[in-house]
UniProtKB/TrEMBL annotation:
Record Gene3D superfamilies: 2.40.50.100, P-loop containing nucleotide triphosphate hydrolases
Gene: modC
Domain ABC transporter: 1-232
Protein name, entry field: Molybdenum ABC transporter ATP-binding protein
Domain Mop: 292-358
Species for this entry: Methylocystis borbori
Highest taxon, organism lineage: Bacteria
Length: 386
């Protein structure tokens, strides 16, 4: 359990953050300059708050009023930054052992070989960091942090400097650390996909304050709590179940209470619960059920709220209880459709706009039996069902 209640003024910026969370991963999410890294630095002990406390499992790491400040070296917190910060003069193995050196003898519960195996870095042990790719460096940095047998791992945008392929390699490793090594994590990220996949709890930070805290699937999809990102970042999270494994066209039908979502790839076995991220700019609204249209996913709902911003409008659609979808359309379209709270609407988006890779189901052959006969007739029937 992490408890944070701190205030800090640095120059013109003032931070006043309070949250507590029992979940294994807490994501800190917010736009650039909102105070995520300062919060992380206070938890790590790299910055001292003006007032307040940080507690880990009830034990204060800092408590200004009580005069407690545990120095960084004694907090037993593992840090992983955007840049791996490996020691250039040490080999991978020496970098890893350096992390281990920080773990008190009695607390070395995390096994060197298990970490090397989990992170897939066995073949890199004798190399210097200069001979590693960006993704490999990050894996070693995660290993070094893990081998210090930390009580808490802090990740500050660990995937931000990597390309999509590398991100998709490392995300499952962070999931394994979360699930197998059971070290609690505080994870700073700008990426909705990372937050949704890794964290059951997100803290939305805006201008140094906590704006909302809760399940990312709810918090990120509501107008009142969605972070004030630029419009291309605004996304909703839909929770659905695999209804049918891939049809003849390789699409997977996901059952959502408001309709069917078609995903352009695998999503695991029938019944598997998945969360898909839909960008607000990808969602089209219609008053009538559209026919003969290329968009595959069609959900029905009711307009809950509307926020105007210059020539654009963000429409929040209630799909089912605690299930919302944001759509960004033009103000002109909003007026032409006479949309207002309570209006029934259909929301459409293209399967091609959904990134099935962020679900973490990568090997089609492992998850889905090949279709007995991928004939076009069966596939078209599947489409009609949708
Ligand atoms: N050491 C410092 N001295 C002065 N101001 C600082 C210092 N560190 C951070 N700030 C300021 O505090 C504010 C919050 O910075 P912070 O790095 O926490 O933002 P962030 O949310 O992590 O942003 P990003 O996503 O871009 O990393 C910014 O206005 C920043 O300029």
């Amino acid at each position: 359990m992490i408890e944070v209640d701190v205030k800090l003024k640095i120059g013109a910026f003032s931070l006043d953050i309070a949250f507590s969370n029992k979940a294994n991963v807490t994501a800190l999410f917010g736009r650039s300059g909102s105070g995520k890294s300062v919060t992380l630095n206070i938890i790590a002990g790299l910055m001292k708050p003006d007032s307040g406390y940080v507690r880990l499992d009830g034990e204060p790491l800092v408590d200004v009023e009580a005069g407690v400040f545990v120095p960084v070296s004694r907090r037993r917190i593992g840090l992983v930054f955007q840049e791996s910060n490996l020691f250039p003069h040490l080999t991978v193995k020496q970098n890893l052992l350096y992390g281990r050196w920080f773990a008190p003898r009695g607390a070395r519960r995390i096994d060197f070989d298990a970490v090397v195996e989990t992170l897939g870095i066995g073949q890199l042990l004798s190399r210097p960091p200069a001979r590693l790719s960006g993704g490999e460096k990050q894996r070693v940095a995660i290993g070094r942090a893990l081998l210090s047998c930390p009580r808490l791992l802090l990740f500050d945008e660990p995937l931000a400097s990597l390309d999509m392929e590398r991100k998709l390699e490392i995300m499952p490793l962070i999931e394994r650390i979360r699930d197998e090594f059971k070290v609690p994590i505080v994870y700073v990220s700008h990426a909705v996909e990372e937050v949704v996949r890794l964290a059951p709890c997100v803290v939305i930070i805006e201008s140094g304050r906590v704006k909302f805290i809760g399940d990312p699937a709810i918090v990120l999809s509501r107008l009142e709590s969605a972070p004030a990102e630029d419009r291309f970042e605004l996304s909703s999270v839909l929770t659905a179940r695999v209804d049918r494994e891939s049809n003849g066209y390789g699409l997977t039908a996901l059952k959502h209470p408001a309709g069917t979502i078609w995903l352009a790839g695998p999503a695991g076995p029938v019944g598997n619960e998945v969360r898909v991220v839909v960008k607000a700019t990808d969602v089209v609204l219609s008053l009538a059920r559209p026919e003969e249209i290329s968009s595959r996913s069609l959900l029905s709902g009711t307009v809950a709220n509307i926020k105007l911003d210059g020539p654009l409008a963000t429409v929040e659609i209630e799909l089912s209880e605690n299930n919302y979808l944001l759509s960004m359309i033009t103000k002109g379209a909003l007026e032409e459709l006479s949309l207002k709270p309570g209006s029934p609407v259909y929301a459409l988006f293209k399967s091609a706009a959904l990134d099935e890779r962020s679900l973490g189901v990568r090997k089609v052959e492992e998850m889905t039996a090949p279709p007995a006969k991928a004939d076009a007739g069966a596939a078209q029937a599947a489409f009609k069902d949708a």
